[in-house]
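=== Structural record ===
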Amino acid sequence: MQNNFKILNKIYEMILYYHCLYIKIPKSHKYNLGEKITDTLVNFYLLIETINKEKDKSFFVNKIDLGIDKIRLLVRMAKDLKIISLKQYDIFCDMYFEMCNMIESWKKSF
């Protein structure tokens, strides 16, 4: 349970960091890719919170993996389209990989 709290905090930190980036995204990308990333991060947070309340967490392993993959793809796309800078991408990746390590440890518990 405590490990899950750390995961939620890390995802929340990623949402806040991305929001700072989102504000500066050009309008041409803000309302499609920009919002898609925001929605994906928030939905992933809500998924982890929901899973925490379930007794049989193993049922959700594929959903967790899919959420992780979506985040990685969308943020990489933002970097490749030069919507976010390489430095911003590196900072986000550090948070992302830390979150992934936490989630892998948590998944082993179920």
